[in-house]
Amino acid sequence: MEAGFSEIRNELQSRDTLWRRIQLECQELNTELLKIREYKDMQEIQIKQQSFCAQLTEQQENTDTGLLLLAQSQQHQEEGLNKIRNHLYREEQSHCSEQERMKTEISDLTEELHQKEITIATIMEKASLLERQLKMELEIKTKLLAKQQLLDFQYKVIKSENAHLKEMM
């Protein structure tokens, strides 16, 4: 039996050694697998980094293009703004000269109106004087007419008396 135990023990030791070798190989394989995974992860990270760099480069190019377009747009806007400023300046100058012209015209019209008011006042004064003169002349003519009528009446009376005296004679 001891020989059977010895054989079993040898068999068990042999299997135990085999088992340990298998476990060692499993550990080596696990280590190898971990190294492969790390290498694969590193490659993925590098691919992601390259992709990210490419995206950054593309974004930078897009940004550069956008900045260039923005600069061109800003230049066009500044040109437009300068045109508007020049137009506004010309309009202001035109407006100022128009205001000056209108002030001069208003001043001239005011002076003309003042002269016309003086003329009207003078004419009114003369008209009032003429009206008084006409009233006086009318009174004189009325008195003369009354005197004339009185003289006519007296003449007719005297003529009639004369005619009557001639008849009597």
**How many beta strands in the DSSP annotation?**
0
* Average of pLDDT: 89
Head-to-tail CA distance between termini = 231 Å
Order of helices and strands: H
Residues in helices, as a percent range:
over 70%
Account of the 3D structure:
This protein is mostly helical. The protein is 99% helix and 0% strand. It contains 1 helix and no strands. The radius of gyration is 69 Å and the shape is rod-shaped. Residues 99-126 form a coiled coil. Keywords: Coiled coil, Cytoplasm. It is found in: Cytoplasm.
Summarize this structure briefly.
The protein contains one helix and no strands. The chain is mainly α and 169 residues long.
Which key features would you list for this structure?
mainly alpha, DEUP1 protein, coiled coil, rod-shaped, 169 residues, 1 helix, cytoplasm
SSE layout:
Elements: H1 2-168
